[in-house]
Amino acid sequence: MKKIILLAALGILGLAACKTTVNKAPENVEKNLMKRADSVLALMSLDEKIGQLNQFSGDGELTGPVALRPDLLQSIRDGKVGSMLNINGAEYTRKIQKIAVEESRLKIPLIFGYDVIHGYKTIFPIPLGESASWDPEAVEKAAHIAATEAASAGQHWTFAPMVDIARDPRWGRIMEGSGEDPYLGSQLAVARIKGFQGTSLSDKTTILACAKHYAGYGNAQAGRDYYTTDISENSLREVYLPPFKAAAEAGVATFMSAFNDLNGIPATGNKDLIHDILKTEWAYKGMVVSDWGSISEMIAHGIATNKYEAGDLAFNAGVDMDMEGTVYLTEMKNLLKDDKITTAQIDESVRRILRLKFMLGLFDDPYRYSNPDYEKQTLLKPGFIDAARDAARKSFVLLKNDNQYLPLNPSVKSIALIGPASDAAADMIGNWSGRGEVKDVITLKSALETRLGAGKVLYARGAGFNDGDKAGFAEAIAAARRAEVIIAACGEAGMMSGESMSRADISIPGVQEDLIMELAKLGKPMILVLFNGRPLILTKIIGSVPAVLEAWIPGTMAGPALCDILFGEYNPSGKLPVTFPYALGQIPIFYNHKNSGRPGSQDKKFTSRYLDVPNDPLFPFGFGLSYTQFAYNNLNLNESSIIDDKPLEVRVDVKNTGTVAGTETVQLYIRDLVGSVTRPVKELKGFKKVLLKAGEVQTISFTVTKEDLSFYNSRNVWGTEPGKFTIFVGTNSQNTIEAGFELK
Ligand code: BGC
Fold this sequence. Notes:
Elements: H1 2-13, H2 27-41, H3 46-52, E1 54-57, H4 70-77, E2 83-85, H5 90-103, E3 111-114, H6 127-131, H7 136-152, E4 157-158, H8 182-197, E5 210-214, H9 233-240, H10 242-249, E6 254-257, E7 261-262, E8 265-266, H11 271-281, E9 287-289, H12 297-301, H13 307-317, E10 322-323, H14 327-337, H15 343-360, H16 372-378, H17 382-395, E11 397-401, E12 415-418, H18 425-429, H19 444-452, E13 457-460, H20 473-482, E14 485-491, H21 512-520, E15 526-531, H22 539-542, E16 547-550, H23 558-566, E17 630-637, E18 641-642, E19 648-656, E20 662-672, E21 683-692, E22 697-704, E23 711-712, E24 718-719, E25 723-730, E26 736-743
Parallel strand pairs: 1-2, 1-10, 2-3, 3-4, 5-6, 6-9, 12-13, 12-14, 14-15, 15-16, 18-26
Antiparallel strand pairs: 7-8, 11-16, 17-19, 19-22, 20-21, 20-25, 23-24, 25-26
Helix pairs in contact: 1-2, 2-15, 3-14, 7-8, 7-16, 7-17, 8-10, 11-13, 13-14, 17-23, 19-23
The structure holds beta-D-glucopyranose (BGC).
Beta-D-glucopyranose (BGC) is lined by residues 85, 115, 159, 212, 291-292, 499.
């Protein structure tokens, strides 16, 4: 009988999965999807509908599949679960899916979700590092590979990309995003979504993406995770929301509501944010999931007395699915009975979830082709490993290269490799490393030994990441004395960034600064390779170390990718996606700040300045050196004044003035000189990567549109205002050439 009900429904619906992206389906496709979702909805009891709105976590995480809590299995049979997270592997997901599609009354398949943040099995650089490539194509490719691996292992949905703008490096989750800039953040958000979702969600290489954490989470006061945010409407619209809007426009399948309270209302219960802006103003058709337990956390926020009130707030705000919360499961019937919510609202949320299940093709094949053999063939494919190596070398940022110590001479006689990151496989994949395994990681030590022969690499750990023990210094210094070149591999342990990993002191931790200074005293060629999930304050050591390469947390292929750069087989091209402060007290510090009425000048009293440190950061947004140099000339605008709708053409000549080929990221910024609200001193509005041979010149062109000149004005309306603008083009946010134009 049960079988008959479902088959009847599916017969009406047609089984083929939808070939379209999520928020942009053509009208007829959308209509069809809704018809299919509605025909299942029509068969559902209230309990089954409420059941679809819950997501629970499995306990198969990391250590491999273990039996689920029996009550959860029973809940799946009872139709009380719409989705599971943290169930891993083709075999295990199949086993759990089988329960849903064979033992529940309506046989509605589950969606399996997982945090595929920078790779599933093949681990790519952390998102912040990957963002330093300023290379949407490479970022899209990495997401596509992650999706392919995850899908082969039975996953349907990643909780990524994190598109939170973060201007406070104390916040550990800065590692999960694209840094401080809304423009770069939006471009890379779209690239990641395209990579995860492809063009058809029924494809073998795609999974649902999730724009998180909506919204403002990265603004946590004092950089403390989960903490309060207080953001003006202007900042919200111009800084924090743009990557989310871009994600919605790119058709991201799902959104996740954030933990933080935003201007007094927790994001998860924030109707303005979810119902009004996302679902109404942006007409978003996808589904909104809460963050882990964030519905009931509204009790601790002090905005709800109990789960009933929390559920009322979240559901009326527009949160469709409750992640690991049980609030909807236990409270929704009472809310309905008390007319706090309506059946139509419940239907609407269920429809959004069923729509995704149809798009994924789950009603057609609930296992979506995943099986242990295909999984085995897919994970860690050689092409994937190569892509991880390429993504890593693109992410490295050369911060300093005095005396051209880099690249190293390939026939170097000996290298002293010192520091806790030299051979620390787990720290190369760091936090949110999916199903990545330490055994698959190639560390810097092992890559150097493979390349040079073990005898030429004099390794001494020297110190731990974060302890006070200097006992290893003597051995490290002795090794350094014997070697021709010193490489210090230092920084943060892989788990010092990520969720709940805020730091109040963001210098290089433990006794590593002392170790670096001792090594620098030897006066030998020395390269500091830095590993970290956030900007660090390097002021104390920067003057003493001749060369510094920022390597972030580079992933499975850390060592080979680093060797490519160190020996000059790949010319570094990464640019900082986030400012590196000069001092802790400057935080929050970001390039697109306002001018103030008394722009700072350090030697002038009564200006906006510090007595003890400069206003400038140590390394500005967009900064990154190469083994060659680039010169910018002939900045040319096609018009000196334009009318509102006419795009402006900007051209600039970029020349490689050095002796080797190199890739430059040409950056375009604007400044609106006078507005009805104060405008930032610079805003990134375009960038292009160009590979130039030694001596080559290329003219790079940009088109600046009305949208690029728009902002949220004093009447809270998005649009342009006439007046004068400056265009800046250059190699980073500080070093630019400029020209002006007027918008009439
Ligand atoms: C995090 C989310 C994550 C979720 C599921 C939460 O603690 O904030 O980013 O997707 O857990 O693992």
